[in-house]
Structures are given as structure tokens and as C-alpha cells.
Give the backbone structure.
Amino acid sequence: MYRYDEFDHAFVAARVAEFRDQAERRLAGEITEEQFKPLRLMNGVYLQLHAYMLRIAVPYGTLSSRQMRMLAHIARTYDKGYGHFTTRQNIQFNWPALADIPAILADLAAVEMHAIQTSGNCIRNVTADHFAGAAADEVADPRPYAEILRQWSTVHPEFSYLPRKFKIAVTAAERDRAAIQVHDIGLHLKKDADGRLGFAVYVGGGQGRTPMIAKKIRDFLPEADLLSYVTAIMRVYNLNGRRDNKFKARIKILVHETGAQAFAAAVEQEFAALGDGALRLPEEDVAAIAAYFAPPALAPRPEGDAALAAARAADPGFAAWLRRNVHQHRHPDYASLTISLKGIGEAPGDASDVQMDAVADLAEAYAGDEIRVSHEQNLILPHVARADLKAVYDRLVAIGLATANAGLVTDMIACPGLDYCALANARSIPVAQEIAGRFADQARQEEIGDLKIKISGCINACGHHHVGHIGILGVEKKGSELYQITLGGSADEATSIGEIVGRGFGPQEIAGAVETIVETYLGHRTGREESFLAAYRRLGPGPFKEALYGDHAKAA
Amino acid sequence: MQILTANRLLDGEAVWLGPDRLWHETIAAAEVAHDAAAAARLEETGRAALAASHVVDVALVDVELVDGRPWPKRLRERIRAAGPTTRTDLGKQARPATARAA
């Protein structure tokens, strides 16, 4: 993992001291809310329905045990015993008092964490494939590049007041697990014919009220040109992005209105003007950063498969968990595993202080001290010996985190929604809980197979509903909650935006509507090998509309 | 009918302006404005409290009276008055004598 150097420590400590002073002056009435609000937002402090909310950056979703324990400590000491992992691979605390936040930031700084640039019109936390550094299908670990982008973008003077917020995601596998095509910039690390590393560069993707799939503007950007090229993109955006209308200020609108080709030409021109200057990445610097991400020593553990076979036969729960929550590691004796934060009836992404401490203990004992947060709001242990999987599973069972549903219908993304969020129009969590309850049966879930449901409580789409195989958007209509369903969205290498299926459903009807959709899929699929998404792409919306609205389907 | 709400500066707690010109943690203690003039008076007090850095996000909320108590028309405000509907062990609803939102 990346470790702070002296400069990093001094910088973060100075920011904590600065915010402490700002908060004290605010509490003393020396500065107004209008003056304070942009300052608190620069430090991740929002005001929500019931309290302040603190959003803490988890760079590219990577945490050490020590850092996770500090998050548990914060949950216990300053909050209400839990935190919420988000679709940006960050964590949010829902109840901190303003007066306590400087102390929280100081605690975070002690473990090399902060909340800088988790809000505001700047470059936000760079996200990455949650299996980075472990996945069998990646060309290299993408996180060193995410870290280079983090260092470059942190308080970057030119890019701290962009037209709007800016999100970058990096993946290094053909199978996109980082949703790069719905980010402002998506980077796909790959190798050219000569084995050199570089990036396919996507730009102008995003969700929100105007969902757009990113356009590929470079098929292969040499590794060394990463910062020059991203700088060129940022400059074109900073100069031409709309500042007159918040709803049209994201780069996706600029790319759409300019046209991808013309936008790419402008970027290439700026890139050429930057030349072979100071932004070119020296090989030794890339190597120095990459060294921080060296994987833990993975000793041969060939005894794993025999032990697993016996344990699998003896424990059906473990067998199900192995089928769903274990991902192939590049080392044959190891695996990456998903710790589902989607227990049936739980709030997606929430973890208690006790659970956070326990996961930290597990990571320390079995996983090279590394934990990941996935954008799907789960935790990952990236490096676990297959021989240890049963021991890890048993300990997860003990803390209620062994739900065997990764990638299944109950592994839903849900934003905090109207239960917490000041922007929301409808609740998300109760909808997720109701749907999870209906599909709780393990055999039924596995029979349905891979299916991603994503729920947002407002059009800002923090719950990624546009790219859910089944997307649910909560709106407010005549003072009541109404849920609109989209079908056929996807956030992988074949990204698609879901299509609205018809009129919305009330809070009492939405889970039933989802069940109808799933039953329709089961009735129409060619076999178990045809996933929901594949079936939808073959069938189109017709059968689903018919099932949901019957004779009224045409009117819907 | 309207009542005036805000969040307390110190901890963000949702509060309502009472007839005693103090900010209360329960919606039941809110003063109900029955006409525009009364609502304007509430707002004036709110502006002063904002300027004095006691509260932030001051806003009028449409309510009706249910059993003589203000009941917000919007679910958002009912949730603010109670707490998360998914965690009834938290927020105001976890304290005695505060109704749940939904």
C-alpha cells in the first residue's frame, strides 16, 4: 500500500489544523454559513436530514487493517456504531457533530486517511477495480496509476474549481469491474502488441439526470503520457465546460455537445502543446509508486483444494459461499473473496464497528493486511489462501457477514436515500430490504443467477440505477414515493443505459414488480446459461411490459 | 399551515421553532403559522437565528394538524421529525414520545 511521506503527513496535518480553526470560528459565530459551507465541503462535511455527514476517502478502495480499525473507532466514538460504504469506494458516517469533526480528521490523519476532495467541483477519489493486484485477468495492478492521479490531482491549483465534480476510474482487465464507461474519465490499462503498458482512454461518461456512456478517444495512450493527456482533457473541459447551468456542467455534456471526434481533436491539440514536458512520467517514478503496491508474499499453499473439497461437502452454506463469493486469484493457491454487506434485511453497504474490527482482524490474520471496498458496496479480502477459506468463512459467519450472494439478486446497490440524504426524493434502503426478503432463499437466488439491481433515491443516481440490469429510481409524486423501473442497464465492458419500462410503482408495489420481472425472465430464458441481461438484450422490453402492465402495456 | 424548521449548527440536529422563540428537538413543540403573516414572523425569527449562528438550513414546512399536532405533508419532513425509517433505534423516534415517520 502507498505510505505517506513527510510531505504527505505535514500536508494532511496542516489541513486538519486549518479545518479545526475554521470549525471553531464557525461555532463561535465568527464566520457565516455561507462562508463556511464551501470550506466544510472541501473536507467532506455535508449537512443531511438528521445530522452532518462526513465522507472519508478510501483511495481506489484500498484499506489496511489499521485503517479499518480506525474507521471502527470513529463509528464507536463519534458516531452511532456504524458506517456506510459507498459506490465511490468511500465511507460515510451519518451522525457526527460538527464540533467533533476536527478530532475525527486528526484520528484519520494518524492512519494516513482524510476527507479532502470528497466533495466539491474538483477531481474526486480515483476509483479502481476492487480485485486490483490480485485478479487473474489483469495486465498489471492499476492502483499505482490511480495513486499517481491522486497525487497529481490533490489540491491541483488549476483543477480545484472545475465547472463540476470530476470522477476518474481505472481498470486493468478486459472484464470491467470498475464501471469505467460511466465515469468522467475511464482508463483501461492494457498492453500493446509489443507488451508495453498504456491506456485506452474513455471520456464523458456519467449517470445523474443525463446518463451518458463514455466515448473512447484514445485506443492506446503510452503509460508515460498519462498525466499529460489527462491534463489536456481537464484543460479542454475547464475552459469549455458550462458554468452557467449546473445540470449541464459535467464533461459528459461538453463531449456530447462538442461531439466525441471534435472533443478528441481539441484534447490532442492541447496534448501536443503540452509537449514532452514536466508531466511525462519517468519510468523510475512509476516503478517507485508501483513498489508500494507490491502484493504480500504469497507462499505456496497447495493443500487448499483437498481441504476445500472436504469442507464443501460437509457444509452446504460454505459450498454456496464458495460458489458465489470467491474470485479467481492470479496465484492458483489463493483467492479474492467478497464479504457481502448485503445481508438479508440489512442496509446495503452498512457495517458496524464490531464488523469493521473483525474484518480488520481477518485481513491481518489471513489476507496480507489488505481490504478493499468495492463500488458495489461490499468489502473484499484480495489475497486469501484457498486453504484458509473455511477458517475465514467460519469467522465471517460469527459476525453475520457470510451472506453467499455476491452478484446475485440480493446483492443490490442502494444509496442512503430519503432515510438520510437531503437530496433524496424517495427511500432506497427499505426497497432493497423488501426485495432482499422476497429473494432470500439461496436456491432461488442461485437459480436466477447473475442479476444486478441498483436503486437510487433521486435522479443524481448515486445508486447507479441507470446501469442496473434492473434499475430503480425513486421519485416524489404528489407527496408520495414512486419508483420508476429501468431494464437492461449494465456497467461492465459492454456498458448500456437502462430503458424505462413504463409507469412507476408505489412503495408497496415495487418489490412485487421486481418479482414479476424476474419471473418473466425465468419464463423466457433459453436456459440457466442465459443471464437476465443477455435475455433482456435478446427479448427487449416487450415481455416485461406485458407482465407488468398486461393489457395496459401499450399505454404505459 | 406552516412551521419553521432548521438544523442546529453544533450537531446538525433537526429542530423546530416554538412559540417561546426557542428551537426544539421535537416537531410537536413547533409553533404553527395559520396565515402568511404568521409564517413571515416565523421566517424573520429564523433569519435572526441563522445570522446568530444558532441554526442552519432554515425552511418553512407545510403541515396539517393531526390530533392537534403538526404533521408534515412531505415524507422528507416526517423522516426528519422521526429518524431513518430503517433504523428506528436511532434518531428522535428512539427517544420517548416521538412518533415514527412511515
User: Anything to note?
Assistant: The helical segments of chain B are 36-51, 75-82. Chain B has two helices and five strands.
